[in-house]
Amino acid sequence: MNEPTPTPRTDPASLLRQHGLRVTPQRLAIATFIFSKPMHVTARHVHEHIQDAFPSISLNTIYLTLGQFEACGLLNSFEVHGNTIFDSNTTPHNHACCNQCDTIIDLTGDAQPAEQPQSPPQLAQWQIQAEQHIWLGLCPACSHTA
Ligand SMILES: [Zn+2]
Ligand SMILES: [Zn+2]
Predict the structure, then answer these.
(1) d(CA 108, ligand 1 centre) in Å
(2) What is the pTM assigned to this prediction?
(3) Domain with 13 in it: what CATH number?
(4) Which of 37, 82, 98, 140 could bridge across to 103 with cysteines, CB 3.0–4.6 Å?
(5) Number of structural domains, the chain?
(6) Over the stretch 8-33, which tens digit does the pLDDT of each residue have?
């Protein structure tokens, strides 16, 4: 009998515990925000969001916390326009980012690993585990007003 494993993605406290992180009120507030739905956030965005509840929390603490989440596999991050974007959707996927309004969308259709990955020749000695692409351009709204 195969018992389906329950995955309580929705309970941030047990999510933290499952990943070996002690549950503190600040971590819980950050986790509750970013795991409520798949989202792309900067540390500044998270900071603004939880500052009402934790007025004394520093931006640096947010960075450290998000880094801890990332280190244990709860978050992915990537760089766009010089900003570190944290992504609470950890399934492999690609992104498109608007150069004008910074809108970021997930491209999930081509997330399957290619049968024969076309990696650059410089990576011949590498054992590639994932690849990510970011398309940059103007989103439909911005290209209409450009
Ligand atoms: Zn745009
Ligand atoms: Zn994403």
Answers:
(1) 19
(2) 0.80
(3) 1.10.10.10
(4) 98
(5) 2
(6) 456 899 999 999 999 999 999 999 99
